[in-house]
Structure formats: C-alpha cells, structure tokens
Amino acid sequence: MAASVEERLAKVESDIASIMVALASRPAAGGTDAKAASGGKDGWDKAGVLIQLVGPIVAGLVIWYVGFAVKDSVDIALHRQEVEISSASEMQALIGKLLEPDVGEADARATALALAAFGLPAANILIFELQTGNAGARVGAQSGLGLLVRAHPEAVCEMFRWVIEDGRRYYGWPAHQAVIELIGQGRCLQVRQALIRFQALVPDSSPETVAKFATEIATDPPPSVSGVDDMRATIDTALAALSGTKPAASP
Questions:
Q1: Has this prediction a pTM greater than 0.85?
Q2: 91-123: per-residue pLDDT in tens?
Q3: What CATH number should be reported for the domain whose range is 89-243?
C-alpha cells in the first residue's frame, strides 16, 4: 500500500533532522595541527562546504517530492470518490429492478444477490423488502440476506435482533418469519435470548394468542392462526440450529 502524505512528510523531516543533528554535533574549533596537515580543513569543514553546495538541490527535491505526494493522494481520493459514485449508481439501478411490481422470483433472487455483493449498505434495503416487496421480491431479499449474514455475521445478526425486538411495529409476521429463518441459518448466537423472548409472545396458536400477538406486531398483513402456527415452528427450528440440536417433531 502506498504511504500516505503524512508518512512521506515524516520521512523527509526525519532525514533533514538527521543532517541537522550531525551538524550540531561537529567538534569545536581546534586541532590546528591536524587542520594544517590536511590543508587547513577537517572533515566537518568539508562536509559543511558540501552541504552548502547541495543544500539548494536537496530543498528543490524535497519540494518536488512533497508536491508529488500530495498529487498522488489527491488522485487516489478522486478515484475512490468515482468508485463510490459508480457503486451508488449501480445499486440504485438494482434497487429499482427489485422494486418493480411484477418482478419474478428468479429475477428478484439474481438482483438481491447482486445487491448483496455491495456489502452491508444493501442489508437494510433487503430487510425492508421483506416487508414491502411482492412474493418474488421477498424470496429474493431473503436469499440476499442469507449471503450477507455469512459475510458480515455480527452486523447483520444485530439487524435481525432489532427487527424481532425493536422493529416489531414496522414489520409484519411474514417478515419476522423470514428473519427468524435467517437467524437460524446464519447461526446468530448473539440473538438467541432475543428469539426466546419473541417466542414467549406466541406460546400457542389459539385465537386468543393470535389476537394478543396482533397487538405486538405490525398488522400488514394481520397474523392468522395458521400463520402463528408456522411462526412457532420456525422459531423452534431456529433455536434448535442455535443450540446444535434437532427441532422436536411436530405432533
């Protein structure tokens, strides 16, 4: 990796400081016999003359070097900005494709996986699509998030925890079910206690439980008895994956 401007300037300053220290430590005047033997000048005198001759050249080289370093760093910064702008444009195009009302499952999966290649910036978009997208977009978003939770487990698992604890008012039960599946698939061990707390909201699939559950979660769509039953099974599977055991067989 190329050295930064600060590192290059520090190197130049260090070299100059070494020369100044050497000059400051030259011996005091004296030793006339030795000077006489060498034509009246000792080694330090000759070094001083040499530095006076090459000093302007060194100064010019330092200025050139610093100017080159600054230009190099500016070029790198501009290139990075161009890449970021290009990435944002590509992401915008992919998001637009995923938001198409008639997007099919195959296209949605391909688009979501392409979005996931951009890393964490795509995670919130894909989680949002679990709630707002059509059936194909939701399947695609779940595939993209499956890739992201493996690439960035800590950050993405924390996003999943937020959904099932703090984001319940914004996401309906299908989105929760998809997130819970991903928690198990991604082995989000840090979310286990949050998932157990969420499990307590759906102890069974009776109408009373469904009605109570509807007050704890976004009702778009509203939860149903069959939906809550599926949710409970999904929670059991995820918790089993997190504990390394097999889920209990359905009665």
A1: no
A2: 888 888 888 889 999 999 999 999 999 999 899
A3: 1.25.10
